Amino acid sequence: MNDFYIYNHKEIKDYAVTNHTVIFCPDQFINLENLKRSIKEYFQKVNQPDFVVIIGGEYINEILLGIFEKEYDNIFGNIPNFLRTHYKKNHCILTFNESGTLQLIAGKRIAPINLKKIIRTGLYEIFKNNGGEIKSQVTHHYVFPSGKHCNKFLRTGNVLINGSEIFFIAFNLLKYYNPQVIKCIYSDTSSINSLVFSVIELKRRFTANLIAPHVESFGSYEKFEKSKFTKASESIVFISSSTSGRILNRLVEQGDFGINQLVLIYYLGDQIQQYQSQIVCDLTSNETNEIIGLNKFETFLTSEQCKYCHSGSVPVKVSGDVFLLERPQINRILIGTKHAPKNISAFIEEFKSINQTGRNVLKCNFSELPSYNHEIYFDLKLLFENTDEDSKYWKKYDFLLSQYLSSHLKYIIYLEDEASILLAKNMQSRCVKLFKKTPQLISKNEIKNINPKEKTHYSVIIACSCLVTGKNLLYISRALRDFENMTITYFIGLARTRSKTYLDDIRKNLCQGAMFEQNTNVFVTVDSIHLPTNESATPWEVELKFLKDFISYCKRKKVVKKVILSLEKRENILIYSGRGRGLANSIFWDNVILNTPLEIRKNFAFYNFNSYHKQVSQADIYTTIASVINNLRNPIKDFNECLIQSEYVRNILSPSNFSRFNDGIIQASILRCANYKELSYDFEEEDSLILSNVIKNCIEYSTEEHGEALMEFLYALAIVKLRLKEHHLASIIDLIKERIKHPLVLAFASYIKDNVLSERKIDIFKKYNSSNNK
What we know:
Oligomer: single chain
Number of strands: 25
Number of helices: 27
Strand content: 15-25%
Helix content: 25-40%
């Protein structure tokens, strides 16, 4: 959990984007190490800011000044390329008082209207990022207490997860709570009571001898309409959310409360002018709110009018805090060729290994930076070192480059990885060949050496070998913002973002400029693929953590030394690859019974080129399956067949996939790439039975190819990533002891029995399946 709420606000003016990073400090003290860690983790995921805004309570004025004015070198020191002089000129420190009013105590002043937008962005991001908007699948939709039908629902209780975020909302509620007058606070649902108590706690920090008010929730329309509020004149009402404001009208019409006693935290709908001052955050996307916001919901007054009812969707009643649904619906996805990217076969054919071990462009567990490994990495240095003029990739490269090289090219700015340097040198040599002119090579950290005031028009090319998040290119874009006579072309060797939407957003941001709005700059990609981007530990980092524990377990159990030596050998393979250039093979457990690696056989559904079974590496196969699963997580149109999870529909990979794809290497790839939510077969008896039978077949035929993925199944069970009903898991352990004598398999069975089939299961699950287990 973070002690600080950090978020980004974009300000757009004259087509230029200014990024504000806001750091909200909710507590009465600041742990410097926690602050440094939080800032470092945040900037590993997002771009560096143009402006920094720090917010805290008046009660920590001196602490804020001491840290953010005097210690800023220390707390921002881990951020790559952070310009200290830039921070000095582009930051502000604000503190709020007992009424929630913000005052500037250091730094650059922000206009009140812009500050209001910044605060709204913070409230909106909390709602959006924590799932405050609940959207139904086609199988069901919602019926509100008012009787309206809709396929979406606002639930503020969902967003009250992190303490720092709760206090951020709470400081925006301070102005409504005067402890000298208010003796009771009502809430429309108990799910927001943590927010109510946070408001009281903040007020306590400003008010000596504060007597806390009585807190009560009425929970539903029916309850407040039948009840009499005995303390109404000394009360305020916090309403979690509304899409019409109707609840405000009904409370006022009932006669107990005036408008100024009602506080609506989140609102989405048409403007309700009489309550405007009582709305904390208007989520509605409109001209006033600019940039961010949600679209208004389409609602229907009756089931006869409801288009969702007419389509066969089940109406789910919402009553108070509870969705009246018997149990989640399980939606099983059976993987097929329709789920694969259209170009996956041609793509792998172009980048595949040669005879499995030669020219391994695709790698897993590749270390590019200290303490950061890639789940999938394209080692493009190998590609750019050995250009193949006859390959499809280089033909496309030549065609595109010939369009954007010109006699006006003055600089080639390159990212500082080895492949980008090779790409830049290749561009330079081709420019010499075409124009008898040598453009200057400049690294991204040397941009400051270019004169921004050059009067003659010229062009530059940004050479990027592989685009994943776009952070470096956005940094370059900001650095070149003041170069008026420069034409910029971003030339990408390979774009491997998590989705097409993400890539399009990067393209839009980089092409944006003052001259032709979104088409000022040029963005070119030679090839592209969409793959998961690991924001937590890679599957092999998780395995390394498991191996350390498993080896200790085996030593305590005095398992035969042969087993420990084989585990230590596996551990060393992962350690070495994690510190070096990754793995193209040995990314899966071998078939230990036959002592053979997992390999693809003929008739793989996703490939249509010849002799692939003799060529591709394990990493090539893993990348293929990862692209398919990633496609299912980022659907463009068909939301009926996807792996997006909702509150009432659990989308899982059908257990029948492991029968449909019976090559051990494909089964292993699915197990490694999928997450535990997608492999949860413990919800339904039938799913658990099907998958347990697949594993039992591996045990029964362990001396044949049919059982080659047994170790991968056992490993997935051991880290509680693959989940079955306990009685099915116990029967698997019993069958192993009956049929298999191999000591490593028996050691796995023993570990699963002692740890997964025990009270330790929850701890094991959290340890290896956490979203932040790096």
